[in-house]
Amino acid sequence: MILVVGGAGYIGSHLVKELVEKEDVVVLDNLSTGHREAVDKRAIFVKGDLGNEEDLQMVFRSYPIKAVMHFAAYSLVGESVIDPLKYYENNVASTLTLLKVMIKFKVKNFIFSSTAATYGIPDVKLIDEESKTAPINPYGQSKLMVEQMLADFSKSYGLNYVVLRYFNAAGAHHSAAIGESHDPETHLIPIILQQLLGTREKISVFGSDYDTEDGTCIRDYIHVTDLAHAHILALEALLSGEKSAETYNLGNGLGYSVKEVIETCERVTGIKANVEMTDRRAGDPARLVASSNKIFTELGWKAERHLEKIIADAWKWHQNQLY
Ligand code: UDP
């Protein structure tokens, strides 16, 4: 049985939907930002808190857990600057509690959701796993701290882990049964689609004077279903003993500027966007694009769904958003 912590959240729920096809799954989520409706009915759901040792012990006592996948983190860069305590408490301290209970129950396999924010402002065009890590906000820092704990626990306690550093997760399940639903919404693609649907007045482009071709920031958008598949390959590699301590980037190696994303949304939906140019947002690097060569070479994963497909699936979801 696989324990998915944070399985009611955006990325966790998409992983669960794929994973239940292959494994028995138990989801632990406190529903602080996740949605109960997003959890596939084939998974067992336990409402509980990552930082609560009793909740965790109950799960580990009740189910024969062979691996843990951990998605339960706060992930808003701006909020992490305003309230770093919240980020260190949940993303670091609570994760430490989870790892402690895993060690106690001799559960040795762990997959951790990390982030491009661990790289800070990169000095290379294509970021690979050897690129320097230098987070510029508490969110990125909190993820890097856990990565460090994993490296140490691997050496001392024989914990096997795979760290997956996501770039910009986007899109929705092709069935439109689940998708992205944050409150407040801060991510570019849902914000554009909400504007095109008429539930938001305008789209603010945060900065048009960056050192990029069209002056707007470039990001590497990756379909949430591609992310889910990468987790399953990572899990298989851990369970087979093929991998025991690895870090992989997950992106598609293609950067798109904010302007290109807006244009693609207009093309896919056939609706013209209402756009205004505003000041830069604090802490935004001009360009974040991943090289995912390592996971392609080692596990055979690559992104299959590119920007148009990401937007088409997200659009289907937003038109009929269930939660
Ligand atoms: N962005 C924007 N307007 C918005 C939201 C985002 O111009 O209303 C830009 C943001 O500055 C960044 C890109 O879109 O360059 C992606 O931002 P998002 O918050 O989706 O993801 P991040 O890269 O911060 O994880």
TrEMBL record:
Its EC number is 5.1.3.2. Residues 2-251 form the NAD-dependent epimerase/dehydratase domain. It comes from the Bacteria. It catalyses: UDP-alpha-D-glucose = UDP-alpha-D-galactose. Pfam families: Epimerase. Keywords: Carbohydrate metabolism, Galactose metabolism, Isomerase, NAD. It is an enzyme of class 5 (isomerase). GO terms for molecular function: UDP-glucose 4-epimerase activity. Pathway: Carbohydrate metabolism; galactose metabolism. Transmembrane segments: none annotated. GO terms for biological process: galactose catabolic process via UDP-galactose, Leloir pathway. Its cofactor is NAD(+). Belongs to the NAD(P)-dependent epimerase/dehydratase family. Homodimer. This is UDP-glucose 4-epimerase. It comes from Neobacillus bataviensis. The lineage of its organism: Bacteria, Bacillati, Bacillota, Bacilli, Bacillales.
